[in-house]
Amino acid sequence: MSSRRASLGSHLLSGLLCAGLAAIARRADAAAPMTFAKDVGPILFEHCASCHHPGDIGGFSLVAYEDVRPRAAAIARATRSRAMPPWKPEPGRGEFAGARRLTDQQIDIIQRWVADGAIEGDRRDLPPPPQPADGWRLGVPDLIVTLRDPYVVQAGGADALRNFVIPLPIDRVRYVSGIEFRPGNAAVVHHANLRIDRTSSSRALDEADPLPGFDGRLMTGEFPDGHFLGWTPGQLPPLLAPGMAWRLDPTSDLVMQLHLHPADTLQAVQPSIGFFFTDQAPQRTPVMLRLGRENIDIAAADSHYEINDEYVLPVDVDVYGVQPHAHYRARSVEGTATLPDGTRKWLISIPDWDFNWQDVYRYVEPVSLPRGTTLRMRYTYDNSAANRRNPDRPPKRVRWGQNSDDEMGDLWLQVLPRSDADRVRLRGDFGPKVMAEDAVGYESMLAADPDSARLHEAAAAIYLSLGRTDRAMAHLDAALRLDPQSVEANYNVGLALAAERRLAESAEHFTRALALQPDHVAARVNLGAVLRAQGRFDESIEQLRAALKIDASNAAARTNLAGALVSRGQVRDAMAEYRSALATRPDLIEPLTSLAWILATSPDAAIRRPAEAVQLAERAAALTNRADLRALDTLAAAHAAAGDFRRAVEIAESALQIAARRGRSDDASLVRARADLYRHHRPYRDSMLVER
Question: Both 291 and 416 in a single domain?
């Protein structure tokens, strides 16, 4: 027993000695001064050097001790207050990928280093400093494009917005899995918005301006379906997940809107953009939602101005990313989602908004939201002298506008619906809301600048989309009075007149637009559609084929061409055009239903394909939430062609209910007559579909 006690005692003594030595080591380590080489440099390299290296937007370098030591106290203050590194979202209110926020431990290390005298330490402890990104950070792009001519930013003065156009040299449809933007002079490029223009409109505006680019207040082009495209310092969006790529068509232009911050000397800017392609076509397409107000009107010295907006989701979605946007006077930004059961989820909260540090924030995991969820945004503004970011001294009244000295308030959300039908339903439900808000914004800008032809043109396009032809024509009259040679004004007048079935006058204005700009594809397509509606099929086909020579992937041109060919009895040629349109745009309702109708109702048995007709018509019905009369009528005919007359009658009855609700008695008579055929087990044959 005694020997065993002795052995146990020696082990206890050994353990106590080890614990004591470890404690002494920890005290010695805690007492050892922090050094730049071992402790602080690695933190700055990881979190700060992407902007703070020679020649970049940070204004000074933080990659060498000699650069950092004179600024040690300022670095301590900036990190202690969390002003730097700039990561604005509030913790716990949205978990975002790539967060630049320092941990409490890292901040404490910097504070201790400064308190210890900001010593350098042993240079052998310092890891290699990050190298400037001379190469592409995502790898070698499949396509690199660069602004042809540098743009010279004049010294001094106010910030400016400028749009630039780069033709994209691709000869076939490509699928983009990611892009990487290189500003060409990060010292003066504050941020960039990127869009794709499949028309020639942006190019025409660029060519009309003697300098590279054109005025940046109104950006042309569109985001690819459901995707953010942009750049802010330090931001590098990862490549998209498989199946989430976006489509890039030939003859497209890249449009860049640069927010330029002048330096003390002349500065040349020449951005480059790398595109990364994949062979996998998109399988899932997100939708961009935008909450916000465009009636902002803040009185001078008002320190508590607030805007709110909300939207109830009609379908289930997953939220992948969020992008708040406002200008200098915004103070706080909030986005929330209230579920049908009353549960609230934070989408983002930025209690100290800073215009200089905007970003696209992508969630670590998508946020799932069920149908009936209410999306809300709340922004506050301080237009008083107490707001140190207020650009006006003394403060002045400010309204909504797209210049930096105006004010804005948007919350963009990238959401992925669960099905194609849900995506179509969401876009159809949300579109009128956002366009109505845009109409308010353009009226606000026109109040300040009533002699801008471009603003009148843009406002008219919005009202046309809303079906407000009267308001559209008022703005178009003003635009043509200010600029009789405006291509877009003549084009939009053509659209407005076509909506009122004033076909001859509509064709005249499309023709004027084409005389001014022969490669205006949309004008040529719409002229072809109007000529087709007038029964002038040969002229229609000529215009539509001319449009396809400019843009072979234009689905609207192929769809209208197919309709004109059917009218001339060229049914098989029409089918080929409908298939080409669907190869480009698989969710277009017109080619889906028209091709299905031919396959179901052609008198020629060699043309009929009942099973394919059912498949196409079912897709059209699903995409329209089974609320489109023509899609249901076509689906009923397809089932009858396939011999399923019971199902054909059921669907025809649903179509009749829609026709009755909408007061479409003529359509109801036709559907009723076809339903009677189905009840007698007879399919419908369309005598107009005889090949000639």
Answer: yes
Q: Which domain holds residue 238?
A: 143-278
The separation between CA 186 and the C-alpha centre of its own chain, rounded to angstroms, equals 23
Beta-carbon contacts of 475 under 8 Å, excluding residues fewer than 6 positions away, are 456, 457, 459, 460, 463
Q: Is residue 252 part of a domain?
A: yes
Do both 211 and 261 map to the same domain? yes
Max Cα distance, the chain (Å)? 117
Assign residue 391 the CATH number of its domain. 2.60.120.230
At 106, which helix (H) or strand (E)?
helix 104-115
Q: Is the pLDDT of residue 4 over 60?
A: no
Mark whether 224 and 177 lie in a shared domain.
yes
Write the DSSP symbol of residue 689: G
Q: Which of 49-53, 275-279, 532-536, 663-667 has the lowest mean pLDDT?
A: 49-53
- Both 269 and 301 in one domain: the answer is no
Could you report the per-residue pLDDT of 644-654, keeping only the tens digit for each? 999 999 999 99
Residues 256 and 306 in one domain: no
pLDDT at 99: 82
Reported as a single tens digit per residue, the pLDDT across 629-649 is 999 999 999 999 999 999 999
Neighbours of 371 (CB within 10 A): 15
pLDDT of residue 237: 78
Tens of pLDDT, residues 118-158 = 999 999 999 988 765 556 878 899 999 999 999 999 888 77
Of 91, 125, 159, the one marking the end of a domain is 125
Burial of 379 (0-12, 13-18, 19+ CB in 10 A): buried
Helix (H) / strand (E) containing 533: helix 521-533
Whether residue 157 sits in one domain with residue 260: yes
Whole-number pLDDT of residue 518: 93
- Of residues 84 and 621, the one with the higher pLDDT is 621
Asked if residue 406 and residue 317 are part of one domain, the reply reads yes
Total structural domains within the chain: 4
Q: What is the pLDDT of residues 218-254, one digit of tens each?
A: 778 888 888 988 887 767 778 888 889 999 998 899 9
Q: Which 8-state DSSP code applies to residue 485?
A: T
Domain boundary, last residue among 420, 446, 471? 420
The answer to whether the Cα torsion of 441, 444, 450, 451 is positive or negative is negative
Q: Which amino acid is at 179?
A: I
For the record, the structure tokens of 14 come out as 């050994």
Residues 6+ positions from 459 with CB-CB distance below 8 Å:
439, 442, 443, 446, 471, 472, 475
Nearest alpha-carbon partner for 498 in 488, 508, 506: 506
- Looking up residue 243, the CATH number of its domain turns out to be 2.60.120
221 located within any domain? yes
Residue at 523 is within a domain? no
Give the H/E segment covering residue 323. strand 317-326
Q: Give the Å distances, CA to CA, from 174 to 135, 165, 463.
A: 24, 19, 33
DSSP 418-455: SSHHHHHHHHHHHHHHHHHHHHHHHHHHHHH-TT-HHH
Distance, in Å, from the CA atom of 483 to the CA atom of 481, rounded to the nearest integer, reads 6
- Residue for token pair 């069920």: 370
8 A C-beta contact, residue 199 and residue 521:
yes
Is residue 560 a part of any domain in this protein? no
What's the burial of 575, exposed, middle or buried (CB within 10 Å: 0-12/13-18/19+)? buried
State residue 133's pLDDT score.
Answer: 54
Residues 103 and 217 in one domain: no
CA distance between the termini of the chain: 114
**Tokens 């876009």, located at residue:** 427
Among 324, 242, 313, 316, CA closest to 280: 242
